[in-house]
Amino acid sequence: MIKLLKVSAVILGTSMLFGCAGNSVLDSDIDRLQADINTVKAQTAAVSAKADQAARDASDAAANSAAATAAANRAAESAAETNLKLDRMLNKAMMK
Question: With 60 as the cut, is the pLDDT of residue 20 above it?
């Protein structure tokens, strides 16, 4: 019985020693993982901000493109009207 108690005490002491040592290793791993998570969060926030800026830039570019297309269409219509006027003037001049 006393031998069993001694063996139990040795096993209990050893397991507590390894348990405490394991906890410190586990704590350092958890701290390292938390630091990695914080880094990933910061990088994600930066990427998200850049993506938002890119979306705004693309929206602005689309608006500028639509405005340029409208201006080009107005210029084409004006050129067509001018060509018609010149054709009429040429025909009148040739009729005289």
Answer: no
